[in-house]
Write a structure and sequence with these properties.
By secondary structure, the protein is of the alpha+beta class. It contains 4 helices and 6 strands, in the order βαβαααββββ. It is 37% helix and 31% strand.
Length: 113
Amino acid sequence: MPKRRLIIRETDLAKAEKKLKAKYSSVTFTPFTKKYFEKRVTYFALKGKDYLAKQYAHYEYPSNMLGRFTSFVLHDNRYPRWLVRYNEQGEMLIRAGLRQPESRVGYLTLVDK
């Protein structure tokens, strides 16, 4: 069963969840956290994949992180230009503008039927 990974906001997932569940056998959302990025930097550095470790090394600057990923596809190409920050729990939050609501951002793992 091939997997597909996609960076998506939780609000966008809520809108498209019905269609996704009909098309894929498994739909799993995992929010991005600072701890996740720290682990990925260490993992890729130990594996000797410096180009991937350098992508994740920018985790302190969340708005730059979204534009650097090569292993994920963005649900909306405008995400890197939006306002991105971490909350107190270390979760990545994104919003389209100052007067827009914040939403967690993470990756969606889709498994074909």
